[in-house]
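Subject: design request, 139 residues
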């Protein structure tokens, strides 16, 4: 009886640790971005818009990620150094952000929206979606 009770306690402890780990992981995830502030753009649509010269494409990935390749014509401002107040918006181009998978770029777009009061855009799925669509990357 004692062995059975110990096994049950061990199993319960394992479930408790797993549940606590899951709760911590979920708490660490950022809340979703506000859809009134951020709009996603698909890779094919963005590709078509880039040729017109009206888009300012900003890569918010880390220096290490950028070293592996960028979308042609993009400028690099890592998310940890991005300050919307320092972004010169005077040329009238629309800013579109991208990152690896879309999470950081959505955050950057939301931060810019908080600053401008306008809905801002980011590449849905990031450079992963760009490459999956067969679009070019410069190395």
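Subject: RE: design request

Done. Sequence follows.
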């Amino acid at each position: 009886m004692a062995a059975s009770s110990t096994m049950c306690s061990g199993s319960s402890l394992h479930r408790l640790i797993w549940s606590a780990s899951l709760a911590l992981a979920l708490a660490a995830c950022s809340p979703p971005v506000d859809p009134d502030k951020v709009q996603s753009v698909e890779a094919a649509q963005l590709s078509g818009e880039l040729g017109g010269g009206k888009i300012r494409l900003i890569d918010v990935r880390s220096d290490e990620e950028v070293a592996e390749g960028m979308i042609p014509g993009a400028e690099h401002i890592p998310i940890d150094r991005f300050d919307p107040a320092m972004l010169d918006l005077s040329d009238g181009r629309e800013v579109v952000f991208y990152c690896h998978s879309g999470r950081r770029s959505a955050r950057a777009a939301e931060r810019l929206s908080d600053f401008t009061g306008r809905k801002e855009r980011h590449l849905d799925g990031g450079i992963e979606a760009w490459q999956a669509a067969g679009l070019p990357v410069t190395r």
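The chain has two domains: 1-30, 38-132.
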